[in-house]
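Q: Structure for this?
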Amino acid sequence: MDSPVTETRNRPATAPRRSKFLGTALIVAAPFLAIAAFLILLAFIADYRFLILGAVLLVGGAGKLIETGRRMRAIDGWELLQRDRRPPVVFLRPFAEDDRLTYDRPLGKQEGGTLTGRSSQKRATREPKIKSAMNRIGPFVAAGRPGETLAPLGAARLYVSDQQWQQTIGALVRQAAAVVLEPEASPSTIWEVDLVAALVDPRRLLLLVPNPKLRPLGFERVRVIVSELLHLVLPTSDVCPPCDAFMFDEQRKPIPILLGGWLAPALERFEQQVRELGAPPKASAA
Amino acid sequence: MTGATQGSFVDQMRERVDQGTRQSALLWGFLDVLLGVWGISILGTSGSGPALGVAMIAGAVVGMVFIVRWTKGRLSPAAHPLVTQLLAYGDPAVVAAAVNAAFAGRQFVPRQLLLAGNWLCYARGTQVMIRHLDALVWAYGRRIKHRLNAVIPYRPATHELALFDRTHRVAMLPIPARDENAALQMLAQAAPWLVFGYSDMLNNTWNADNASFIAAVDARHAEILGAKPQG
């Protein structure tokens, strides 16, 4: 998380815009709006190239509207925890990961040369890939970034003030069935890593890491944090197979996991391991 | 402008860039006048309304204002592209003197990557680049395919050298294909600590772990400096 631990930040809990009605209306209306706009284009434009361009833009616009609708319908974390009484799965990550994009070209301020168009970009977060598997274990929740206007898709967001977040996350991690951790070197994430080291059985931990074959330096940075703070040993990037995450067995041995497409059952083994462990000790005591 | 003596290396570069600016301004100015004349001729023809002709004349006037301002800006001492390049390393006069000292006795050659001491220079048309070797972190050659609608080739592929520096400036230097390898080899000999070549891994690392990328280059630089025999 960004750094609510610093004294200069004292943001109150905020709530993003949510409306099931408006969200559903957007999702339903988006395709019809796109089709209507395309028919209008068809009436006025004869050049097929502009029609193709218009169609592409309209499909993109409709997709954006549907995504906005889905985000407006996203369930609030507190409501989810009320509704689903199983021990939660808590997602801990730096807030910056929510917005991080990947690009197919290196970024920089270009001087001279041929302009080859904009680099295509996509969101780097792996949250959507793990969401359904985590929801099968328990309600998948994460702290929401204060001030965001729409809740992201993925884990249900819990919006808490800067003064409350450590207490809230601490309480959730204590009773969590599993914890998904994306370690980074920011102060707040380091606090979360320390918390996980103190409270979480490594068998309940899913560690999201940069793929060592695509980001070896990022992987090494995370490997050092994990080794020093969690006392878990990951293989070095040169010997590690391509992977996006690690789970740990009873001997604290790391098992690499490559998150594939929507249908790839990459997390089945982790789900099974967590189920076999049963309810977390703190939750049973509670 | 830079405190360099007349005919010095930096002055030769400036001369070349100014010449490119003037040629470019002339070319665009000529095309702009053609647009205006075309607009006037459309105004006089029957059939098409005056709107298109007026729009073309207005566009030509706006274009001419832009061309004049762009040219004056590039030729002015304050916003000259060469001064902008020198400013990145401190006082332009001091940096120009350092570049001149490194290239003492050498003639400037356009469209070629020139290296002397720790300075790397290039100029072609309106483009000019001056880089200190220590500022660079990554270099690779790229081949650009020129295709209409991304399908139909309309001119042969061209080659460019991409030079990334630690402040995220990327100099793309059009260079003849036959010179590409030689330029990269020259760079590899002068600055072996740089990262050379392109891959998805390097792209991802540059974009996502930029500070680590630069730190790794610096570590390699320090290692090479440490391994060099002293004296």
